[in-house]
Design goal:
By secondary structure, the chain is of the alpha/beta class. The chain has 8 helices and 17 strands. It has a 7-stranded mixed beta sheet. Strands 12, 13, 14, 15, 16 and 17 form a 6-stranded antiparallel beta sheet that branches. A hairpin with a 4-residue loop joins strand 3 and strand 4. Helix 1 runs parallel beside helix 6. The protein is elongated.
């Protein structure tokens, strides 16, 4: 079976690796154009492009696929390339570009998407972040047939994965990426055998995972401690939860609920020591165990406090 693959970040690169190692033929890989990254803001290839080039796969990086968009000539060239590339199906994972109907209609056996949630919950851009932030007990991967709606297509395979109490978006991402890689191979094997069915998504339980905005990083300590603890895990590694302490933005990377009975004005530092910085919240208190000052490294609370005094004061 010949597969067109479209994806960009590490999540997608894991799926591409799984397909390649499973022996599928991948005559073309689509990924987003190189972007500036790092302190020097040098152009950097996506993880998908890096894997594809390292394994001899042709790569295309159109800025758009919409024939009615700002770059119709680029989109037309991409359409022509897709039609000229012999293939059976397109696999899409976190590509980052909208696939219009004109593209969805090209693959003879359709377009299949790897989505990191239990659809119809958390359709959209940031399903891993939002599942942790909301306090979901579990999440998973859905393999779905793509259509023009946002993650609305029929479901082909689904598998649940529990969210561990200590999971961050980073750790959960890696688990779901591995699961998605295994599941897409299973789905394509079933497609080859003619045993891959599809079930429409239920109308109930639809939620949307909006893209994470950098502004969300600033914590409101008037919220309950359990809400803030989830946000800290959800925003690790991006964008990184933060609080303003005496005019300095301090990143808060890991935290746990403090012992019951510790109270104070929201944001007030109740104690600070090797076991963490305890901060009063709108309800209960939070024990922050890993912090980072601007330009510094992520440090355990005890090490952080050696160079940044927080024995009194408050987050604003």
């Amino acid at each position: 079976m010949n597969i067109l693959f479209a994806g960009t970040p590490e999540f997608a690169a894991t799926a591409l690796q799984s397909l390649h190692q499973a022996g599928f033929s991948i005559p073309l890989v689509l990924t987003q154009p190189d972007r500036p990254a790092g302190r020097g803001m040098q152009l950097q290839a996506s993880p998908v492009k890096q894997y594809a080039l390292a394994h001899g796969m042709p790569v295309a990086q159109p800025v758009s696929l919409r024939l009615d968009g700002k770059h119709p000539e680029v989109a037309r060239e991409a359409h022509d390339l897709l039609r000229a590339t012999p293939h059976d199906v397109m696999v899409v994972a976190a590509y980052g570009l909208i696939l219009p109907r004109s593209v969805l209609d090209i693959p003879p056996r359709g377009c299949i998407n790897i989505h990191a949630s239990l659809l119809p919950r958390w359709r959209g851009a940031a399903p891993i972040h939002r599942a942790i932030e909301a306090g979901d007990a579990d999440t998973g991967v859905t393999i779905m047939q793509m259509e023009e709606g946002l993650d609305t297509g029929p479901m082909m395979l689904m598998e649940r994965l529990p969210i561990a109490p200590e999971d961050t978006t980073g750790s959960l991402h890696d688990k779901l990426a591995a699961l998605g890689g295994r599941m897409i191979v299973e789905a394509l094997r079933k497609l080859e055998a003619g045993t891959l069915g599809a079930t429409p998504q239920p109308g109930d339980g639809v939620t949307y995972a909006a893209k994470i905005a950098k502004e969300e990083a600033a914590l409101d300590f008037g919220q309950p401690a359990e809400v803030l603890e989830r946000k800290i895990r959800a925003f690790n590694p991006f964008p990184g939860a933060s609080g303003n302490f005496r005019g300095t933005t301090v990143k808060l990377w890991r935290a746990a609920l403090a012992a019951e009975g510790m109270r104070g004005a929201p944001g007030q530092i109740l104690s600070a020591g090797p076991d963490g910085v305890v901060v009063a919240c709108g309800k209960d208190a939070l024990r922050v165990t890993e912090l980072q000052k601007p330009g510094g490294k992520k440090l355990a609370a005890g090490e952080f406090l050696k160079g940044f005094a927080m024995e009194s004061g408050a987050f604003s």
